[in-house]
Design brief:
Length: 196
Amino acid sequence: MYQYKALSIQETELNKILEKDNALYKIIRDVSALGIPNLYVGGGSVTQSVWNHLFSKPIGYGISDVDIVYFDTDLSLEKERMVLEQIVKTTKQNQYALDVKNEARVHLWYEEEFGFSIPAYTSTEEAISTWPSTATSIGVFFDQENKLQIFAPYGMYDLFSGVVRPNKAMISREVYEKKAEKWGAKWPGLTVIGWQ
């Protein structure tokens, strides 16, 4: 029997906001079609597109790069480089820098970069669930029917309310406060919730 899933107002609104940024929307479409396992475009580029809409900033304002994450159990650097090259080739006409990560490999380099070790992720969704704030813990992709799919483990209330709230699943207070200060300077209308 056919099951109809009504889109929430927030899901519909997010799609409209992302669609206004032709370059970002094209990246999401193009990388979604590559067949890379468990792939999402997420984090800052999605969140900051919404903040730009909320606070009447230009399209693309404040977006330093586009996070593209996926989950491939082949942990070799060679395979990761091949995926990166495939994504770069597919998105070469875009205006944004790309940050591409195989979330299955993050535990292999995390301690060296951030000073403490983390357990291996079991999926891209698990990784997104540890991103620095509830509003930035979000990923999107287009499914085979060309419909935008959204993973937002903490919902989208904070995102659409302009609230920056710490997600303490993994990050440190120092990392959160540095990011929150940077975001607050670029989008002064944000409500920044302290670590405590």
